[in-house]
Amino acid sequence: MNHLHFQTEKTRASQRGSALLAVVPAIVLVMALLMAFVGSVTSASQSAEQEQTNLAAESAARAVISLAVEGVWSDFAAVQNVDTAQPWDFQQFLEQLGFPDQSEVDAPQGVDIAQRLTLPVDDRGRATFGGAIIESIEAYRIDNWDSTALVVEVTVAQVRGMEDSSRTMRHAVREIFTIAPPAWDGLDYALLATNINCILCHTNIDSAQRFYNTDPELYGTFDQVKLGTIDSLHFRSDPSSSIAGSLYVGGDAMEGDGESISNWSKFNLKSVEVDADGKIVQDDWGGTRTTNMARPDASDPDKAANLYLGADNEHSDGFLPSSFPSPFPDNGGVDEATGEVLAAQAGNRIVDDEEFMTTVARSKGTVSGGRISIVEPGSSIDKSSELSALRNGAGDLIDGLVNGNVYLHGEKNDPLRLDGDIAIDGDVIISGYVLGDGAIRARGNVYIPADLIYADGSKGGDRTYGKAADGSPNNLAIAAGGNIVVGDFYRPAWGKGSPATGGKDGSFNFVMDEVAIFNRMEWIKTQPTLPGAAVKVQVGTKTVIKDEYKTETYVQVVAVYKNQKTGNKIQQPVYKNVTTTTGKPPYQTTTTTKVLTGYKTVDEYKKVQVGTKSVTKTRSVKTGNKITEIQPVYEWQTPQHPNPYYAGADHIARYYTFDEGQPAPIFNKQGYFDPNTGHWMSEERAEDWDDSKLSYADPSKANDPFLYAPDGSPIAVLSTLTPTGGWVAPDEMQKLIDLNLAQRGPKKTPFEINATLYSANAIMGVVGNLGSDHTDGRLHVNGGLVASDIGVLAAEGTQINYDGRGSESLSITSDRGLTIRRSATLPLPRS
């Protein structure tokens, strides 16, 4: 047994010896894999630990940067109101701190700002934060014309093992902070103005996307729209309007004469119902439901609200701006030769050369197709032949930036083709069909004499709003450094009388009425005090010597008469009062006339004396004596009240005038300021060249008190509605408007504008309702109307469909205040 076993073991040993030669490599491989796995686990653990350490170091660096920047910003806010500061204020502040502008330096050099921070120190006196050693904190600035970049770099060290060993790890983090004016959110509104007058008489405001939607699956998915006015809202007594959303009024709502609105139920002003998510409610057929306007209820915060007045806006979901910034920021611009900011030109309410060029220098868009004409500076259109050449087009492309005045008109089969943003150093006249996506910024005025419509496609017979036939977007935004003028602004009221000229030789039409009202609002800002209602005040006494009288009675016999029939018959006329209304608001007049409707037969009567009677009467007679009386003396006085709207002595007023050289009418007479309501009380409109109602800012007078200070320095600017510099003569401009309107044909359709329109000045115009105007008195806007002052008359009503794409095309920044934001974090290579 043992022998056998011995033999067996011996045999196995021999066999195992040869087998091991094959198994050893596998064991080595397994062991190698096992060691690799253990090593990888160890390495991963170490890597994770290292990564955590790196993240901690970078977090410490970013925290230190935040502390440093917060300190700089707080110091700036201590010496400058950040709500009114301009970019150059911050740049000058940094200059004083020892941070020079390094925008032109290839390798900017940082300034050590470690001493500005108080950080913990270790036992070797080194600054620390979050367990890391702060080795350096440096910053430098890079100026742009409209912003400043503050770049801060921090280097931190982490010691692993012995101090100063090769295992000391360093991390550098660079963060960039942008200091710039905040974005302006006014383009989020379908209609926004400082003061809204007249246009809300007969207006419906909706969403363009909802208005043109035909897909039932999208019912109820469209956002509500917003309507806003920064200062005040004026209503006529009979408005009939609806808003598919909410109305925001920064100041107060009042009737045309200045009386506050206390009873909103008397107005036919409705809001389209929206749900809790702010979506327009629609039924199964796509229709909407209207609801009454309702203010928020502090005692019931969940109650649905759609009307926000004054302080209500603090609790609303709508940001209401406080001013209208210029599309070419009024900050002076940059001198192209030196790169210096021209702060001396800032705030003058004029689009200066440098401000225009600095804003539009990067305009790279194009406009092609249609009819394009460029009128060079100094040239004018004052002949019919020149007008014909202008309308026929003398060019085929606008590329980026144009120096001159521009005429653009798109035909249905040859529309204007937009591609990106263009800038015009002059006025723009634009109408017709438009294809493509882009924005037009005009330094001067923009005129829309007739329809401006997207060349949209169709699907199933329905318009695919905002989309061309190939599905590409149609989207136009227009910003004017001057004013935007719609339709026939020369047109006399209801087509009667002579055209408006801006002087007393022409009609005082609707546009002139709006000019006078808006000028009064601007005049109010220039007055430290305002006149109140005239009051009768006793100013003294006087001594009067007069005859003394006494009263005595006496009896008088008088005849008594009675009407008696004569026996004859006579024909007596029968009249009826007939009331007629002519015109449309705001020029509507109502008259009552007695009209003869026939005759009737009646008895003839004659007055006959039938007797007498005695009557006791009284009379005053002199006594022969004299008496002395002390009587009060009165006079009418106009009290002056502190003006809550006074903009300060440095405010530069902006008055509208119809034509260059013409006076600017100001509707500030026969009215007064009511300190109890804070309203100006007066008739709704001046209605005529009435010197008892109007004051005039006259540029022909070197000492005009509205325009010049006593030392002769200017205190106001004039904004003209007619073509700048008269580059189109008034007669030719009137012809151009008439010809473009006539191109519409005799069809009774609304005057349609497809664009978002923006001006820091005014949007004004008239859409006539006579057959000769080729319109039916209705205005239809797909886009938005946003301007400091809006005075547009469409006698038969206005439809505004908000298209939010316009806010994406126009980048408008606030004209006051600065914000700071972290714009980039860049970890630098580790050492």
Can you put this structure into words, describing what you see?
This protein is α/β, with parallel strands linked by helices and 831 residues long. The chain has 8 helices and 40 strands. The strands form 8 sheets. The chain has a 22-stranded mixed beta sheet that branches. Strands 1, 2, 3, 4, 5 and 40 form a 6-stranded antiparallel beta sheet that branches. A two-stranded antiparallel sheet has the order 23-24. The protein is globular and about 140 Å long. The chain starts with a helix and ends with a strand. Residues 1-34 and 36-42 have low confidence and may be disordered.
Cα-to-Cα separation, first versus last residue: 75 Å
pLDDT average, as an integer? 85
Strand content: 35-45%
Category from helices, strands and their pairing: alpha/beta
Shape summary = globular
By DSSP, the count of extended strands is 40
Describe the biggest sheet?
22 strands, mixed
How are the SSEs placed, and which strands pair?
Layout: H1 2-79, H2 87-96, E1 111-112, E2 128-129, E3 132-144, E4 147-158, E5 169-180, E6 191-197, E7 203-207, H3 208-212, E8 225-235, E9 240-243, E10 245-249, E11 252-255, E12 268-272, E13 290-292, E14 307-309, H4 353-360, E15 366-375, H5 384-392, E16 395-399, E17 401-403, E18 405-410, E19 416-425, E20 428-442, E21 446-448, E22 452-454, E23 457-459, E24 462-464, E25 475-480, E26 484-487, H6 510-525, E27 529-531, E28 535-582, E29 589-637, E30 640-642, E31 653-657, E32 664-666, E33 672-674, E34 679-681, E35 695-697, E36 716-720, H7 730-742, E37 751-767, E38 778-794, E39 797-802, H8 805-809, E40 819-828
Parallel strand pairs: 6-8, 6-38, 7-9, 7-39, 8-10, 8-11, 9-12, 10-14, 17-19, 18-20, 19-20, 20-21, 20-22, 20-25, 21-26, 25-37, 26-37, 31-36, 37-38, 38-39
Antiparallel strand pairs: 1-3, 2-3, 3-4, 4-5, 5-40, 12-13, 15-16, 15-18, 15-19, 23-24, 27-30, 28-29, 32-35, 33-34
